[in-house]
């Protein structure tokens, strides 16, 4: 079984890959454009597999997983280029969701008929 990588290991792996090339990371604006392009490709795949627009026979057989992988790579490149530690950022976001937004959504255990006191 292959060892799973931490987010920090992913960021290091991408940085080692990009560091091989003189060009290095793209500028933040170019990175954002690239991420937008990848998001469009992801949207297209989701629409093909889960929406109303089937693929044409002439179109490549990409998958949602492949497009998510491309998005992840560009996101890591973006974070690395700006010196952002995605593990710390993730922890900060999760703290926000578990504190500020803790009562925003209906918990599965609350569906049994119990009423939130905020309602």
From TrEMBL:
Pfam families: MazG (PF03819). Residues 26-105 form the NTP pyrophosphohydrolase MazG-like domain. CDD domains: NTP-PPase_BsYpjD (cd11531). SUPFAM superfamilies: all-alpha NTP pyrophosphatases. This is Nucleotide pyrophosphohydrolase. It comes from Peribacillus psychrosaccharolyticus.
